[in-house]
Design a protein that fits this description.
Blueprint: E1 5-10, E2 20-25, E3 30-34, H1 35-41, H2 47-58, E4 63-67, H3 80-89, H4 97-104, H5 122-132, H6 135-159
Parallel strand pairs: 3-4
Antiparallel strand pairs: 1-2, 2-3
């Protein structure tokens, strides 16, 4: 079954700000909510509590997962900010990769957004970046090789 999900929106009391939502993930049989919603759902009778109990009644057998925020500090994945910082820190002789990067991102020489500029998708940007800096794929392949060998050794120990 595909991992189909729906969002449940709750209009809060006048005392509370913003909207709350929970994600119902049918493929995994999970009701997903944020840490903030979970804290609010601890208060009996609150809109978050009512929404959670309603969802639990409607979707019996589903488990509740609380999703925390990503840790601040550092880069999460290979995103535009990381690529730009890496290009600035590791320029290549004879080529202005930062200018190419800015063109792919639809930015001018100063880094300001161009009007009506063609923009590469994040996937296309990653493809270009990994082609220019192959050490990332080499590093990833080295880690993959080590983990594959470890998995093989564990499987061999279990079968012996």
């Amino acid at each position: 079954m595909k991992n189909i999900s729906i969002m449940i929106w709750v209009v809060p009391d006048n005392n509370q700000k913003g909207y709350k939502n929970m994600k119902i993930m049918f493929g995994r049989k999970v009701i997903e909510m944020s840490e903030k919603e979970a804290r609010e759902a601890e208060n009996y009778g609150s809109p978050a509590y009512i929404a959670l109990t309603d969802a639990m009644r409607q979707f019996e057998g589903f488990t509740v997962e609380v999703k925390g925020k990503a840790k601040a500090g550092g880069f999460k994945g290979l995103n535009r900010e990381f690529m730009k910082a890496h290009i600035k820190a590791n320029p290549k002789e004879g080529r202005n990769l930062l200018a190419e990067f800015n063109t792919l991102c639809g930015l001018d020489e100063e880094g300001n957004k161009k009007v009506f500029a063609a923009v590469a998708s994040v996937g296309e940007l990653r493809m270009w970046f990994l082609n220019e800096y192959p050490e990332f794929t080499d590093s990833r392949n080295a880690v993959k090789k080590i983990l594959d060998n470890t998995r093989k050794e564990i499987a061999d120990k279990r079968s012996a």
